[in-house]
Amino acid sequence: MNRKIxxxxxxxxxxxxxxxxxxxxxxxxxxxxxxxxxxxxxxxIYAVLYGAxxxxxxxxxLWNERDRFIAGKEHARLAEFPARAEMGFFPxxxxxxYEENDGLLVGHQLRKELGSEYGSMSLGMEMSFVVGKAxxxxxxxxxxxxxxxxxxxxxxxxxxxxxxxxAAHYKLDNLTVIIDRNYMSVDGNxxxxxxQLDMQQKMEAFGWESVTIDGHDILQLIDALSHKPEGKPYAxxxxxxxxxxxxxxxxxxxxxxxxxxxxLYSRAVEEIQNS
Amino acid sequence: MGQKGAAAGIGMMELAKxxxxxxxxxxxSVAIASLDRFNNSYPDQVVNAGIxxxxxxxxxxxxxxxxxxxxxxxxxxxxxxxxxxxxVRHNLAYxxxxxxxxxxxxxxxxxxxxxxxxATEDIAYARALPNLTILSACxxxxxxxxxxAAHDVKGPVYVRLSGLLNCPIVYxxxxxxxxxKANVLREGEDVTIxxxxxxxxxxxxxxxxxxxxxINCSVIDMHTIKPLDTNCLDEVFAKSKLVVSVEExxxxxxxxxxxxxYKADKVHMPRLIRMGIGDFFCKLGDLRYCWEQHGLTAxxxxxxxxxxxxx
Lengths: 275, 311
Description:
- The complex is a heterodimer of chains A (275) and B (311).
- By secondary structure, chain A is of the alpha/beta class.
- Chain A has one domain (8-273): 3-Layer(aba) Sandwich (Rossmann fold), CATH 3.40.50.970.
- In chain A, 39% of the residues lie in helices and 12% in strands.
- In chain A, strands 1-2-3-7-6 form a five-stranded parallel sheet, with helices on both faces. A two-stranded antiparallel sheet of chain A has the order 4-5.
- The two termini of chain A are 31 Å apart.
- In chain B, the strands form two sheets. A seven-stranded mixed sheet of chain B has the order 2-1-3-4-6-5-10, with helices on both faces. A five-stranded mixed sheet of chain B has the order 7-9-8-11-12, with helices on both faces.
- In chain B, strand 11 (242-250), helix 10 (255-263) and strand 12 form a beta-alpha-beta unit.
- Chain A binds chain B through residues 110, 117-119, 121-122, 125-137, 139-140, 158-159, 162-163, 165-166, 169, and chain B through 23, 44, 47, 49-50, 52, 54-66, 86-87, 90-91, 94-95.
């Protein structure tokens, strides 16, 4: 590992700072609204990835041996960007400009110098790209690992399963996928709307090795993401709460993309700070 | 061997020799894209994505994403463009990964396999995408040169191959192929026919029929649909009183559409007649049967031109 690895306590503190950044970003987005709840569910996932798992060098973001992380569920930028900012990919004060015209962070840009390996855009798009990337890494004997975060509802897109089939077929054991299993999509609960059922069983049936963990438990995340099976790609099903960390947002479908008023911002910040 | 056999069996084989980093992604289409010999010779350079055209495109992009190496994605034109369109839009048009689509059997070439395998609106979809070079081959020799030229384009390309195994010859001798530079195959002062793909041969044959009636046609092989050779078109507009576009593609949004768009804001323009596939699904059958229903055989093209001139 080419950089300092954070301890469990440091990662917990990082999560707190990331949640506060998320609230600041949501407030800065004003009437455009922000993808708040889907970001909050993967704060710990991002914190562990950038705090303890991914190998990278922020002084040399294009370092060829860096691990490759590709962000699916790309609307969760209120988790993705605070993680990178806090770990040194760009200044923290850039965060609140993430919705600004022609900004560094606006939309879905591929900016390797800022730690972004792809602009995923439409849900599920990134998974086949990830397969191609992991495959060429294997073919060219690269030592780095490829990681991808997906949403559980995002897996309703069929092309994702095409990619799961090919990843197992090509024995891409340099590939780890994390599924943010928060049991919600825009319209509500996934199991009521379009049941995804047992995703670990599905991944195993598709030829992957898989595990289900508590996606808010730092040690479980570190343990799972450190595991590298041989001959198979690996899927970590991280059970999470959509909106985790702010009581009035948790499991509330109205907060997928919503406007955060000054009043609710203050309430949210207070809750996070007292947690 | 047809356009796809020539492109894969000669053009891509030559490229693989020159560029061992190159990859070819297929969607259970090694045989379909005439890549058997390629696959046997360069198995390490082929990636089969299975019958999954959307992920085929994503995989192609991912393979190219680290060092920008050339990656070809080869299957039926209808699937490589239409079925995978959003993946093409996203990975090729937007991110501009160095992926070259090679779509075979465009138009009605799949004959009685019919609608599912016909590509008749693909140029319309592709044309609206930024950053995508669109090439359309008229015979096997041009197909070889085209697929090889695509390799050196810095960015995404769509190569549209059409015709059957016995694809008629247009170029009887070697010729200079340059992306974006149309080839004038015949000169005549009465009408200019701007054609692409299989319709180049039909246009040349139509010109012969019309010459016998003292109507003299220029025939241009517009092999690059995007970017259009506008210098060539400017000369055509200046010299011709009637311009006819002919393509094995919808009259909406293809070569004819592109020319119509180009001339729309200019003054003193000649008439443009767009010949191609009409806005309906024809009765199912073989290649010529379909062409006949859309007026795309040489005698029908000649007849239409004469009629338009008589107006």
